[in-house]
Each structure stands twice: as C-alpha cells, then as structure tokens.
Amino acid sequence: MSAKKRDYGDLSILMALAVFTLWYLMDAIRVSSSVQNLLLILPLSLVVLAIVALEVVLRVKRGTLLQRLEEEAEPLHRTLPVVGLFAAYVISLETVGFDVATVLFVAAFLVLKGERKWPLLAGYSLAFGFGVAFFFAQMLPYPMHMLILQG
Amino acid sequence: MIDLAAVEQAMALLFSSFSPWMVVVPGIVIGLVFGATPGLQISMSMAIFLPMTLYMDFVQAMLFLTAIFTGGSFGSGIPAILMNIPGTSSAIATAFDGYPMARQGRHNQALGVALVSSVLGVLMGYLILFVMIQPLSFMVLKLGPAEMFAVILWGMTLIASLRGEQVLKGLMAGFVGLLVGTIGFNELGMARGTMGQAYLLDGVPVIPAMMGMFAASELFKLANKGFIVESEAARKVKISEIFQGFKMAVSYPWVLIRGGLIGVFVGAVPGVGSSVSNLLSYVETQRRDEDPDSFGKGNPKGVVASESANSTSEAGSMATLLALGIPGGGATAVMLAAFAMHNITGGPQFIRQQTDVVYAIIFANFAQVFLLVVIGLLFIPLLANIVKVPMRYLIPSVLVLAVMGSFGLTGNMTGPATVLVFSVVGWLFRHYGYSVPAMVIGMLLGAMAEKSLLHSYQISGGDIAYVLERPMTLVILVLLVLSLFGQRLAKRITRRQPRASA
Asked: What residues make up the domain containing A47?
C-alpha cells in the first residue's frame, strides 16, 4: 500500500470500535444505571474511547490518519469471493440442509480456486460433505436439518 | 506431606489387576482425536464418553477421563501448529509460534517440541500435585475475587501488549473483547447488548467466536495460497525431525520449568486454568528472552512455553477438583459429574479419607505420560500429512468442521452465525494489525472479570482501601505495572548508567 493511496479501512475499524463501545455503554446504562451493572462496563468503555482518541491524535500528529501501518500482501478484494461463499454457506444451512449445503459449499470453493479435475471435485465434495454431515449428526445430541441424510 | 501407607495402597489399587489400565489407551486416543479436531472440545469428548464410566469403578473411571484429558491437551496443539486453529483455548499460544514454524516447513520439529513439552508438563504437574496437594488446596482457598480480577487484568494487559510496536491497538482489541465478553445477562439478571436476541442472553458463544477469529479469518487470508507450506521439500513428514523437536524442547529447561510452575498454579485457580496459563507462560518467556522479537515468527521456545503450561494446568485443575470439589474448567466439570455418578464428593475430607485413590490417580498419570509418547509418535506422522493437502481442499474442509463443531457447541444456528460474524471481524483485524488473540482472550474472560469485580465490590462495600488489605492483589497489580513498563524502565536506567559513570 503506497503512502499516496488513501486507505479508509483502518480508520473505519477504529471508528467501528468506538461506535460499538459507545452503543454498548448506552445500552448498559439504559438497562440499569446501578453501580453493579456498570462497575466494569463504564470504566472499561471510557478507557477504550480514550485509547481510540489517543490513537487518532497520534496518527494526526504523524500524518498517517488515512494510512495503514501494517503492510499486507493480500488485498481485501481478492478474498471477498471466499468470504461471500462462506457467508452463503452458513446462511443456507437451515434451508438447504447441512448435508447438501456442505457438498455445494465444498464443490463451489474448489471451482472458485481453480480445481478442474471434475471427477475428483465431485468425488471429494460428495464424500466429504455427506461424510462430515453424517458423522456430526451421529455424534451430536441435537437434531440437524438435512435434505437427504437422516438428521 | 506424603502418606507412605497410602502410596502402598495406591500401588495395590493400580497393579493388583490389569483392568484399570484397559481404558487408558482408548482414553488417550479419544483425547487426541477430539483435541486435534477443530471444534470438538476435550470437555465435549469427556461428556460424550461419561456415561461409559458408569460401568467402571471409580479409579478406572478417573483413569479413563484423565487419559482423555492428557491426550486432548496435546491433541489440541496439533491443529494449532498445522492450521493455526487452536483445538481448544488452552492451545492459543501454541499457535503463535507453532504455526509460523509449520509455514517455514518446520512442522515436524514443532510437533516434536509440542509432544515433549506436553509430556514433561503433565509429568511435572502431577509430580508437583503429588508433593503439594495439601498445601496447594490451602493456597487456592486464599484466592478471593479481588485476586482473580487482578490476575485477569494482568493476563489481559500482557496479552494485549504482546506486539510491542502496536500496544494501543492491542489494548483496544483486548478491552473491546472484555466488553463483548460481558454481553448478555449480568450477575443481577439484567441483559445488556443483546439487541433483543434471545440467543445472546447467555452471552456471545466464545468458542465459536474463537473459531471464527482464529481459524476462519486465517483461512481467508490463505485462500489464495497453494499449500500451508509452499516449498514441496519442506512438506515431508520426517520422524528424524520430530526427534530433533524432542531435543529442542529439552534444550530449554527453564522455559519448561517456568511454564510448568505457571501452569500448575494458574491451573489451580477455578475458572482460569489452562486458557490463561498458556498465554501467561508464553508472554513471560517472550518478555525474559534475549530476542523477544523472534517470538511469533517461529521460535520453538514459544511452543515449549505454551504446551508445558497447558499440560501442567491439568494437574493444577485436578488439585482444585480433588481438594475443594471445584472444577477449574469444562473438563474437570465433567470429572465432577463422574464423582457424583460414583457417589464421591471432592474436598479436604476426600483427600484425607481416600488418599490412596488420589495417589492412584496421580501415579496412573505418570504412566499415561509414557503411553502418550508412544501413541503421540504413532499419530503425529498421520496428522502431519495435513501440510501435503492443497489449500483449496483444506480450507473448505476446515471451515466446514468449524461450522459443524460450533453447531455442536450451541445446539442451534447461533454457533455457525457466530463463526461467520467473528471470521469477518478477525479477517479485518488481521488485515489492519489489531491483535486477534487479545480480543479472543478478552471475550473469554469478560464475564469472569465482571463477576470477580462485582464480588470484590460487594465484599469491600465499595471501599477501595480493601485492595490495600490484600497483599496478593497488590503483588499482582505491581506485576501488571512492571510487565507494562518494566522493560522500558530498565532500558532507561541502563541508558542513564553509562552517562552517569562517564
């Protein structure tokens, strides 16, 4: 990341942490302003907000407010499809079923990452997806939603 | 301190028949498999196999459960090293240097280091337990909520300041983690930060969050890589290198001993246990090392520190269980259930009246250590093959295991949803240099920190002078300040000295 290119990501995370802390503090105060409820949350929230403020001041002083301090080889956008696929998998578990969703997720991931040996792709997705779903369904005491296998 | 007559009776209990030993090997294997599978906890495996102990006598049941515990404590280090996924929270620090070692193609050595450190840790822990069980139980009784809070704060600050140049980011992540850890019902039954979601009333499920922050986010980062270890030559599993790891581990005796001592004493504190001890030991080792910057980049001392501490914690938590009847964590909680199933109540009376049984459990663990070496050696080559699997196969497989495991922990979609949310948080944190371990540990300790502080407040009636009456709290607080500023202070003093003498 060059110094010329602006990166709002780091600052956004800093702000997100501050917003979360403020929201959580407000929510805790709304629930009860008793000492027992705020004994840890209030001082800790104030410390977090103070650290965020200090970090912003230090960065402004250094002139690095919109610059990332860490060098990262992998740009975020290259990983986004993987994150999206994983999100789709988790969201689909309850509707598609753990067994079929897992098979589809593994197969889609392999295609996304360039696997073109179709028999291997199909064989692995089916064997792993159904195998793991079956194993967990047998091991866990809770019902798992399945489309083909028995939950 | 040692009751010799009870020693003799314990030997008779263990060696009069072969039956107590029948369960040890299966126990270690179960522990290894569950520990090494991301998402399957040691406590979960013990709970699953608990009903089987109904058909065993008490000693046999304890041998079986402690064998699972011993196997699991090493097993959880395996995915930490090979995939950067700590099998349990007790192996978090193992991943700090174990995984970089694996990425450098030194996975064989890292696994060897972990095995020997674990084995020596368990041995040391039970040896200390054998000699000290009575004084240790007395000491545990002295620890009040004020000390617990101080220990948590100390641990938190140490972990947050692990990355020297970005202390503020580390502290921020750690403290926000503590706040997240307090979401849900507090001690008074008031729910905070739940956004009206009933699933969050018991708080954010920490283990799924940990899986997301550590495992999934790391896997996202590696999504565009071919293999965990890029060099083909380095991907080989070599027994000779595993043995090199053995030698490497014993070449750091002080790291082992320090880890062992931290493990046994922190492990004895109920609720804190191995989750904190491995981190404390790691941070202390890094702090005292001549080259602290080499930690986190594949320094075997980091693996030794973590594995020796988490393994000795087993003995520490057993001390609390046996002496006070208080479980130190999930695994000992299951053991407590086994106590109840056999109509046995832990406590000072149990130790006095059934010293032979206590000693038998301890001696059996000495033997388990040697069995762990053999079984571990058989398992490592099998498990180390993971580095040969292309990332495009490994990533979706591990993500699936994490999702399924998280579902197993919560019993509903809260687990998988938590993995998803925290995987994205962890991925962004890693990308922008915020400390992921600090946030995770904060979440693990948040509720406990609040409870300890509240109890201290209730005992003291809000009078801050109460802290001054607690010498142990003061000592821990001084250690906290020293660990934050001690190094900088020492540097400044040494810089001034030559000037003064000039």
From this structure: 9-62
